[in-house]
Amino acid sequence: MRIIFFDFITVFFIMAAGAFMLSGCSYKKKPEPEPVISVEEEYPGPAIEDDDSDFVPGDPELWDKERLTVAAEAIVNDAGPDIVPDEEEKDGDGHRLSGSQGEAGEMEAELSEEDHTEEEQPVQGCGIVWLGDSLTQGSLGDMDDNLSNAPYERLAKLCEDRGNVVEGFGYYAYVTSDIFWRYCEYYENGEPKDPEKVYVLWVGSNDFALASDPLSAVAEVEAQIDSFVGDRLKKYIVLSHLPRTETIPGDTYKHINAALKEKYKSRFLDITSCAPFPEGFQGDGVHLTQQSYDKVAEAVYYKLMEMGYI
């Protein structure tokens, strides 16, 4: 009886197990789903301000497809995304402007261009003082000083673009010592001997003409020049003596100029070619034609540039 009961229970469980298997059920435990890491948790995304939308930085559901793609690629490459504007602003050559906005790119480009562009520096002008006798006045030999056409006026026009202020002081029939005395005594524009100024000295013509021996007057003229410039004045030039009736015999004017050149070296300017005798002179054989005066002024201008004074 016990054996029969055991067999019945055994058969029951076998049949129940078979029925359960036939019903498609399984005792296999359902695996727990792996935790999903959202794009927001992996990379919160850039903070983008948009007044026309409800976009919240880091919310992947509100990102458009393009930005999700860029973010996903950035995650794979372990780098932050570079959000590209919908419309890049480019310069005239088709290059993308640097910066997040075109305006900032243009500003950076302008600054870069300024860094590599040499700024134009204004020319620093200096004062020029031209001292002499009636030749400095531009006299045409008729007692008219001709100041409006004097050589220093011509020099002033040549120096206009350089900012140089030119002053001229010519004293009719004066010898060298009187020229310097008169200038220093009556100069009204500050210090008569200003080391910051440039001096053009066209003196000695009357000294040579009045001396019984023109060559003997050279030493005195040089002494007067040296006394005037002293140790303070460094920027000056000495113009040569032009031939005149008293210094033409025996080429005396050439010997005078040789002595002046030996004394003043690079500061000496030979202007004899500017006024060839006699065609470059007035009928008196002393004063120049207007064309000669203009040439003298031009020679002085280039000499001052050569010396680095202007």
Keywords:
5-stranded parallel beta sheet; 2 domains; 310 residues; Rossmann fold; globular; alpha/beta; 11 helices; 5 strands; disordered N terminus
Helical content, roughly?
25-40%
Count of discrete structural domains = 2
Largest sheet strand order: 2-1-3-4-5
Number of helical segments with 4 or more residues: 11
How many beta-strand runs? 5
Structural notes for this entry:
It contains 11 helices and 5 strands; from the N terminus they run ααααβααβαβααβαβα. The chain is α/β, with parallel strands linked by helices and 310 residues long. The radius of gyration is 50 Å and the shape is globular. A 5-stranded parallel sheet has the order 2-1-3-4-5, sandwiched between helices. The chain folds into 2 domains: 29-86, no CATH class; 127-307, Rossmann fold (3-Layer(aba) Sandwich). Helix 6 crosses helix 11 (290-307).
What's the layout of helices and strands?
Elements: H1 2-22, H2 39-42, H3 65-76, H4 102-115, E1 127-132, H5 134-137, H6 151-158, E2 165-170, H7 176-186, E3 198-202, H8 205-210, H9 218-229, E4 236-239, H10 252-264, E5 268-269, H11 290-307
Parallel strand pairs: 1-2, 1-3, 3-4, 4-5
Helix pairs in contact: 6-11
Short structural summary:
By secondary structure, the chain is an alpha/beta fold. It is 40% helix and 7% strand.
